[in-house]
Write a structure and sequence with these properties.
97 residues, 4 strands, single chain, 22% strand
């Protein structure tokens, strides 16, 4: 089952724009404030230990997609949280099982 989650601006504090609001303003931001998808991919893969866990990670315009299989049903949550916390990630979509 696929799902998507976004960081809420109200949950971020500090005046950061994230989640659905970042999706709307991202094209308007100067490139100096945006992180490249390749940079985000590297950061997310390291944060969730993707290679070690055999997870697939893709990034397009700040939207992270995770897929893979965990031995324990509760483990996908442990990968989602660190992925969401990487600066520059707009949203995380997953089909982790």
């Amino acid at each position: 089952m696929a799902s998507i989650s976004c960081r809420s601006p109200s949950a971020e504090g500090g005046g950061r724009i994230a989640g659905p609001n970042l999706l709307r303003v991202r094209p308007l931001l100067p490139k100096v404030f945006l992180r490249s998808d390749d940079d985000l991919l590297s950061q997310v893969k390291n944060a969730i230990r993707a290679d070690e866990l055999g997870l697939s990670v893709t990034v397009a315009d700040g939207l992270v997609t995770l897929s893979g299989v965990f031995p324990e049903p509760s483990q996908p949550d442990t990968a989602l949280r660190p992925a969401r916390e990487v600066d520059g990630v707009v949203a995380v979509r997953h089909s982790l099982t």
